Amino acid sequence: MLARKVEALKSGAPRSILTANIGCLGHLQSGSDLPVEHWIEAVDRLWSDASAPAPAPEEAGQPAR
Predict the structure, then answer these.
(1) Is residue 13 part of a domain?
(2) Tens digits of per-residue pLDDT, 52-65?
């Protein structure tokens, strides 16, 4: 089952595999040569790499704390 799932995920030629489930993350890592990470890690990395600073919570539609 793991091999089929990884094959299906890789069919779109992704640079990495993202998941929201920590159990799936470990399982997918064991069967893939691609990086596998939690989706929020990818968002954090992309946001950190951006040249513009992250918007304030109220600008992003989030209430200020």
Answers:
(1) yes
(2) 566 677 765 656 55
For the full predicted model, state whether its pTM sits above 0.85: no
* Residue 22: domain span: 2-49
Name the CA dihedral angle for 8, 13, 16, 20, rounded to a multiple of 10 degrees: -40
Query: Helix H segments across the chain?
Result: 2-10, 22-31, 39-49
**Mean per-residue pLDDT, 12-25:** 95
DSSP state at residue 53? P
Number of structural domains (the chain) is 1
* Residue 57 within a domain: no
Within a 10 A sphere around the Cβ of 33, how many other Cβ atoms? 8
3-state DSSP: the chain helix, strand, coil percent, rounded to 5? 45, 10, 45
